[in-house]
Amino acid sequence: MLRMKLLTAVAATALLAAPAAIAQTTPAHVDQAAAPALPPVSSENVIEVLKMHGRFTTLLQALDQAQLTETLATRDRITIFAPTDAVFAALPEGERTRLLDPANAQELRNLMLFHVLVADLTPEQIMGARGPIATAGGIEVEIDGTGDAIRVADATVTDPAINAANGGIYVIDSLLDPNAASQGDSEEMADDTPPPTTAVKDEGPAAGEPSRASVPE
User: Fold this and answer.
1) Which of 20, 125, 136, 217 lies 20 to 30 A from 14 at CA?
2) With 60 as the cut, is the pLDDT of residue 23 above it?
3) How far apart are CA 156 and CA 60, in angstroms?
4) Residue burial 10-33, b: 16+ Cβ < 10 Å; e: rest
5) Counting Cβ atoms within 10 Å, is residue 170 exposed (0-12), middle (13-18) or buried (19+)?
């Protein structure tokens, strides 16, 4: 069944390899006057920016335990959906302990990869669009920019996008669940009725506006 994709990103194996091109849809026309100005571009990578903000300690611990810290710090064009320390603190203590147990390192890695895109996804690409995008773990997550706040699966983006030198960060109010996403994909494949979609946007920044910086290849 054909489905519109917000953006196509490479799978998990590509996250550990050389940068790869990302297939994109034909740019759609956007009223440039309506596009918001982006925050100043940071000179720090996504990991350094997370550390600077001081409220992502558990996420940073999880990324480090999943052996993704160095990759995310050095790889170009990265987007992270970042749960705060408060999100992790709200989990049952037993579940939080289980996730961070070294014995469950692969499960934690899969969870963290579901919070990463190998693409620099800007707010302009999301606004007014809705559709699935492949995460670094290869499982698609639904992104919805048609409402008052950006939605990523069942999570809500709570802060303006945070820029970094090699991508961007979206702060979310809950953990994303790759198992729920996989189940949703299976149910959708069994349904012959295509889901409603909204035409996607994929355009560069408006004239005179800064874009997210990229680390030179």
Assistant:
1) 125
2) no
3) 20
4) bebebbeeeeeebeebeeeebeee
5) buried
Structure tokens at 47: 């990991």
User: Does CATH place domain 40-189 in 2.60.120.580?
Assistant: no
CB contact at 8 A, 133 and 115: no
The larger pLDDT score, comparing residue 126 to residue 213, is at 126
Q: Are 85 and 53 in contact (CB under 8 A)?
A: no
Q: Do residues 88 and 59 lie in contact, with contact meaning Cβ atoms separated by under 8 Å?
A: yes
Burial class of 186 by CB neighbour count within 10 A (0 to 12, 13 to 18, 19+): exposed
User: Strand order of the sheet with strand 140-144?
Assistant: 130-134, 140-144, 151-152, 155-156
Residue type (1 letter), 116 = V
pTM: 0.70
Separation between Cα atoms, residue 93 and residue 182, nearest integer Å: 25
Which residue, chain included where needed, has tokens 């680390």? Answer: 215
Domain ranges of the chain: 40-189
Distance of CA 186 to the CA centre of its chain: 22
Query: What does the pLDDT read at residue 40?
Result: 52
Assess contact for 202 and 131: CB atoms under 8 A. Answer: no
